[in-house]
Specification:
Elements lengths: L1 E6 L7 E8 L8 H9 L3 H7 L10 E5 L6 E8 L8 H17 L4 E5 L10 H15 L19 E6 L5 H26 L7 H15 L2 E5 L1 H7 L2 H7 L7 E8 L8 E5 L1 E5 L19 H15 L5 E11 L11 E3 L5 E3 L7 H13 L5 E6 L3 H7 L4 E5 L2 H14 L3 E3 L17 E2 L7 H10 L7 E5 L5 E2 L9 E2 L4 H12 L1
Parallel strand pairs: 1-6, 2-4, 2-5, 5-6, 9-11, 9-14, 10-11, 13-17, 14-18, 15-16
Antiparallel strand pairs: 3-4, 7-8, 8-11, 12-13, 15-18, 19-20
Helix pairs in contact: 3-4, 4-5, 5-9, 5-14, 6-9, 8-10, 9-14, 10-13, 12-14
This protein binds ligand BES and zinc ion (ZN) (2 copies).
Length: 500
C-alpha cells in the first residue's frame, strides 16, 4: 500500500472511502464535518440523534454518499471521550478502519489527521501513528494457505489529508516513519509466524543477508567453528542438542559519524525452544517457534534505521540457535565457559536464552558502545508478573531507562521497570561455578536480568523481557493473533529519537 499526504478539504478529493472520527462527548458536529453533512442531507446529524453513532471508542458507521460527494463512502469512527484520547487510540482506530475499509472492497481511502485537538502531539506524530495503525491492522500471514480464504482486493493507496499547507512536510516525515516502523514490525511478525522447520538459524542468517544487501549494511555471520575459536560457550552449549548449525549474526549500520560510538541491539534468537533436556510440557510448545522474537525485532529495527537513514551507528546482534534435546545436548549440571570467561552451571537447559545472550552481550561490549539494549522472550515469570500489556524492563542506567520508557509510550508499546538490586544475585550462586543459570522460586524475571548484567561490564544497558507481549491470544485493532512483534516499534522510535 502506498501512503501519501495531500492538502485538501474533506468534501473534495475522490476516494473509495473517506474515514472521519468523532468523540463521544461532542454535542454538535465539528466545523470540518458540516460541509459533508450538508452534502449528505443531514445524515451525520441524524445518525447522532438516533443514537446509531455515539462516538464511543471503536464504534463505527458506514455511509454511502450516492454521488453527493466525491468520496464514495464515509466511515465514521468513534474515539471515545475527549479526555481519554491518546496517540495509541488513534492507532487503534486506524487499525479497525483499515479492516472495515478492506471489507468494502475499496482500493483507496483517505482520512484527515485525527484528534489534533485532543492528542498532545504534532500532526507528524499523529500521521505516523495512523500509518502504523492502518498497515499493522491489515497484517495477515497467509503464506502456507493453499487457497486464499479472503479474496478481498488489496488497498492500493492511503491518503492523509492536511488541512493546512504548513502541515504537509511534517506529515510526510511522519508517514515515512510510520511506513518504516510498520514494515519492520510486519517483517518481524512474518519471521516469527514461519514455523521452526523453515525459520532455522541458517534461514535467519539469509534474511539478515538480504537486508544487508538491500540497504548496504555490513553483515558478519560467525559459524560454529568461529564461535569455538572465540570461546562462545553459551551459544555452543545451547546448540549442542540440535542438528541445525548455530549462527551468530552481526549487522552494522553506519548512519552516524565515523567517530560516533554505536548503540548495540541484541535479540534472543532461539528459533525453537523445546526446553532441551529440561523438556517443556507439550501444551502450547508450538508457540516456541516465536522464541526468536527478540532477534526478529532487532533485524526489523536495523532495517528501519537504514530505510530512514537515521543518523546513528547501530549494531544488531542475533545469537541464533535451536534449543533441542539431542543425544549430545547440554545436561543439567554441565558447566559452560562464556565469551567473557565467566563460568555457568546449567541447572536447567530451558533457561537457554540467558546463555546465548551472555555471549551476545559480551560480544556487544567489544564495540565500546554508547549503550546496549537487549530484547528477549526470556521468562515465563515475566508473563506471571505483567500479563499481556507491559514489557518488563531492567537495567543499570537511569537515563537510558527513561529514554526507552518514553519511546515505549510514544509507540504504544509500554515498558514497566523491575528492580535490579545486587541482593538478587544471591539466588544465582553456584557451588561449583561463577553462577548458575536459574534463580529458584521468586523474582524469575529479575534473576534472569541479574544474570545478564554480569556480561555487560559497566556499559549502560537495558534488558527488555518481551515474553509477556510477544504472543497475542486474540486479534486486537492493530495486533494480529499469534506473534505480535511488540517491541519493534519501541526500538525504532528510540532510534528515531536518538537520531534527532
Ligand atoms: N522461552 C522461554 C520463556 C517463555 C515462556 C517465553 C513462555 C514466552 C512464553 C525461556 O527460554 C524459558 O523457558 N524460561 C524458563 C526459565 C526457567 C527455567 C528459569 C521459564 O521461564 O520457565
Ligand atoms: Zn527455554
Ligand atoms: Zn527460550
Amino acid at each position: 500500500m502506498k501512503c501519501q499526504v495531500k492538502e485538501g478539504h474533506l468534501a473534495q478529493g475522490a476516494t473509495d472511502v473517506l474515514v472521519i472520527s468523532g468523540y463521544e462527548d461532542e454535542n454538535t458536529l465539528p466545523k470540518a464535518h458540516q460541509a459533508l453533512d450538508d452534502a449528505l442531507g443531514g445524515q451525520l446529524r441524524e445518525l447522532r440523534s438516533n443514537g446509531e453513532f455515539s462516538g464511543k471508542n471503536q464504534e463505527s458507521a458506514l455511509i454511502h454518499t450516492r454521488k453527493t460527494l466525491p468520496a464514495k463512502r464515509i466511515l465514521w469512527l468513534g474515539l471515545g471521550k475527549k479526555k481519554d484520547v491518546t496517540l495509541d487510540r488513534v492507532r487503534q482506530a486506524m487499525g479497525t478502519a483499515f479492516k472495515k475499509v478492506r471489507q468494502t472492497g475499496a482500493e483507496t481511502f483517505s482520512a484527515p489527521v485525527f484528534a489534533t485537538d485532543t492528542v498532545k502531539a504534532p500532526a507528524s506524530d499523529i500521521a505516523q501513528a495512523m500509518v502504523e495503525g492502518a498497515m499493522l491492522g491489515g497484517y495477515r500471514f497467509t503464506h502456507y494457505r493453499s487457497e486464499n480464504e479472503e479474496p478481498s482486493k488489496e488497498i492500493r493507496t492511503m491518503t492523509l489529508l492536511a488541512n493546512r499547507a504548513n502541515q504537509v512536510s511534517g506529515m510526510k516525515t511522519g508517514v515515512r516513519r510510520g511506513e518504516a516502523s510498520a514494515h519492520a514490525t510486519s517483517f518481524a511478525r512474518d519471521l516469527c509466524n514461519h514455523p521452526a522447520n523453515v525459520m532455522t538459524p541458517s534461514r535467519v542468517a539469509q534474511e539478515a543477508q538480504s537486508i544487508a544487501e538491500d540497504f548496504g549494511i555490513t553483515l558478519t555471520v560467525l559459524e560454529s567453528k568461529d564461535q569455538e575459536k572465540l570461546g562462545m560457550g553459551g551459544m555452543l552449549g545451547v546448540a549442542r542438542g540440535s542438528q541445525e548449525p548455530p549462527k551468530f549474526i552481526v549487522l552494522e549500520y553506519a548512519g552516524g559519524r565515523k567517530k560516533d560510538r554505536p548503540v548495540v541491539l541484541v535479540g534472543k534468537t532461539i528459533t525453537f525452544d523445546s526446553g532441551g533436556i529440561s523438556l517443556k510440557p507439550s501444551e502450547n510448545m508450538e508457540q516456541m517457534k516465536a522464541d526468536m522474537t527478540g532477534g526478529a525485532e532487532v533485524l526489523g529495527a536495523v532495517r528501519a534505521a537504514a530505510q530512514l537513514r537515521l543518523r546513528v551507528n547501530v549494531v544488531g546482534i542475533l545469537p541464533a540457535t535451536e534449543n533441542m534435546p539431542g543425544g549430545r545436548a547440554t545436561k543439567p549440571g554441565d558447566i559452560l565457559r562464556m565469551l567473557n570467561g565467566k563460568t555457568v552451571e546449567v541447572q536447567n537447559t530451558d533457561a537457554e536464552g540467558r546463555l546465548v545472550l551472555a555471549d551476545g552481550l559480551a560480544y556487544a561490549a567489544r564495540f565500546n558502545p554508547q549503550c546496549i539494549v537487549d530484547v528477549a522472550t526470556l521468562t515465563g515469570a515475566c508473563i506471571v508478573a505483567l500479563g499481556q500489556f507491559a514489557i518488563g524492563m531492567l537495567g543499570n542506567d537511569d537515563a537510558l531507562k527513561a529514554d526507552l520508557k518514553k519511546a515505549g509510550e510514544q509507540a504504544g508499546e509500554r515498558v514497566w521497570e523491575m528492580p535490579l538490586w545486587e541482593e538478587y544475585f544471591e539466588q544465582l550462586k553456584s557451588d561449583v561455578a561463577d553462577m548458575r543459570n536459574i534463580g529458584g522460586r521468586g523474582g524469575g524475571m529479575i534473576t534472569a536480568g541479574m544474570f545478564l548484567s554480569k556480561f555487560v561490564d559497566d556499559c549502560p544497558w537495558v534488558h527488555l523481557d518481551i515474553a509477556s507481549t510477544d504472543w497475542s491470544s486474540s486479534e486486537r485493532p492493530y495486533i494480529s493473533k499469534g506473534p505480535t512483534a511488540i517491541g519493534t516499534r519501541l526500538l525504532v522510535q528510540w532510534l528515531i529519537n536518538r537520531s534527532g
